[in-house]
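The passage that follows is intended for readers who have already worked through the single-chain material. We present the inputs for a multi-component assembly, then the predicted structure in tokenized form, and finally a short commentary. You are encouraged to pause after the input and sketch how you expect the pieces to fit together before reading on.
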Amino acid sequence: MKVLTIARNTFREAIRDKILYNLLFFALLMIAASLLLATLTVGEQSKIIIDIGLASINVFGALIAIFLGIGLIIKEIEKKTIYNILAKPVPRYQFLIGKYIGLLITILVNIVIMGAGLYIILILNELRWGHSIFDVNFDIWKAIYLIFIELMVITAIALMFSTFSSSSTLSAIFTIAAYIIGHLTEELKLIGDKVQDSLLKGPITFFYYFLPNLDNFNIKGRVVHRLDVPSSYIALVTVYGLFYVAVILLLSGVIFQRRDFK
Amino acid sequence: MTNSVIKTENLTKVFKVGFRGKSVAALKGLNLEVTEGEIFGFLGPNGAGKTTTIKILMGLIYPTTGKAWILNKEAADVEVKNRIGFLPEQPYFYDYLTSREFLRFYGQLFGLEGDELRTRMNNLLTLVGLEDAADLQLRKFSKGMLQRIGIAQALINQPDLIVLDEPMSGLDPIGRKEIRDIILRLKEDGKTVFFSTHIIPDVEMICDRVGMLMKGELVNVGRLNEIMDAKVKYVEIVARNVSKEMLAHMEAIGSSLYETCDHVSINVRDEDRVDSILQLIKDGKGSVVSVIPQRETLEEHFIKKIGGTS
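Having made your guess, compare it with the prediction:
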């Protein structure tokens, strides 16, 4: 119940934050602009639109997750609002989970808005060519669902950094780095296999196993080319994401429990 | 037999500061006890460790050594917070909330809801005089209004112990009086109030007992009349129509004089000499306006103590 109270308040704080609307505006702008780009191509315009649209949802969703996610705890400490919450009968881990859920709801709402924007553009595109609206590739929602799972992982990472760092900038850099490397883990493994130097091999192998493989959540290519995405794959990746989130939240909880709020 | 509401034993807090992690002791072996139903003033200059103590009591930071109990439970116990009302130093609140949303939020953190919560919210808004600002966002509040809504949220759970960190700082005299009245009303209701301040007259007016903290150490604790020198410092005699000759005489027997337009104020350090001075005034056909024994004020005591430790 207290978790939900904090989650609701976090959501309220986020939707009263201007940064959210800026990011959402640019995301929708990008999705709309894909329609223009599509007209420059020969052949299946919808592929271009889906490609750009899903990429925009992923990137802007990640930006929302990172910037709002880091602000979650650090802002509470900077503004000293956390003192009065933790002086109430709210266990620290519940505060943390409440903040996390509040942000997830915010992200979910935003992704659904962006997804709806993309869907409308796709419908308009089909109508323009005299096709039925049922020709729209419904699988984009599978891709958007997995983007959401990915953002759950990124939000958890941002939250973890903000539980021990007191600098938003550093936390942002770390989380963005984790996001980028997380999308390059396959390459990391390849490099690790090729490198002879054991001094380099160690850290590379560590990063490969420690950081999440975010490309697992990326089914954009398959959706664009209307290839089948098995439900078993989606279920497996969901479990992978949730497991990663659970571990990070547990770690954040331990760090947060021991922290002094000076 | 009185019950202890707050108790600390040998409480020490060492902070690491700066890049090199230099150790700074904010609290050095604090032993403090606050009993049920009293108003306890926690006094000390800025940086004495008052807020550090309060943060340990509220479970926001952990002591380096020593222990703290509230209502016979360990201070870090989350359950005991159901019975505490807390107002942090300078109210830092979510300023995007309105008064009502704000009180509802904190009420929900105590598990309150429905009619019960609504009734308490309305009563508290009336108590702190913010009925008209019920739907105003906190960012539009004045300092005094913030302090008042802060007190309201501290009382939403009808606590047994109310901890206020600098509740009067930054308020005008009327605002301070309002806060004092609320604190006195809480005492009447049988609550224990623990508040920190550096505004001495407030303490003098309402506190049952005070504790003085300097550089992380409790230098004095007790009832006001116990800790302050009950001894008369000097006797102030105010008189009229005293001749110059007499004044010189009085000065000679060890008193200091301050002349105003038609009065003269004579401060006599030695109580035994008061009678002879009064006799001198009488003999010189002067008239006595007042004779007031002067005792130490809390402020003087406080400054003397600071001087003694620094």
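Commentary: Chain B has two domains: 4-227, 232-298. The first strand of chain B starts at residue 4 and ends at 17. How closely did your sketch match?
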